[in-house]
Amino acid sequence: MQKEKDNNNLQILREIQKKEKEEENIKNKKEEEAREIIKNMRINSTVIRNTSSSPLIFYQKRQNTNNTFEVMIYCSDERCSFIGIHNPQVNSNNRYINLQVIQNHFAIFNLLPGTYHVCSYSKESLENIGFVEVTIQPQM
């Protein structure tokens, strides 16, 4: 009786592990597709410094004429609904946060050079899904 129960539990565990692996493969495929989309857009991009593990991926386009940089953000988490971004050196009290709704896992911001705090949120719970600190700077 116990052996049969153990075998059932082992089978359930294997199915869970298989499903988790499939979900991880789907996530990796979506991230690779996002990178390919950006590459096909011919953006002169570099990955910006990411200071934490997060579902967010950043790409910086070359400098615009008004000294801003177009920054493309990809959020791999399905729950991600919108992105909040602010510069803590300029805006230390977090009163002015630039928010943008995610469209097909992407958001695009025009930012001046500097260090920014970026958070991704779920609209269902307003849960903070990911946080990163990124540095926007001219590419050498």
UniProtKB/TrEMBL annotation:
Biased segments, Basic and acidic residues type: 15-27
Region of interest called Disordered, as start-end residue ranges on this chain: 1-27
Protein name: GRIP domain containing protein RUD3
Organism listed in the record: Entamoeba histolytica HM-3:IMSS
Species lineage: Eukaryota, Amoebozoa, Evosea, Archamoebae, Mastigamoebida
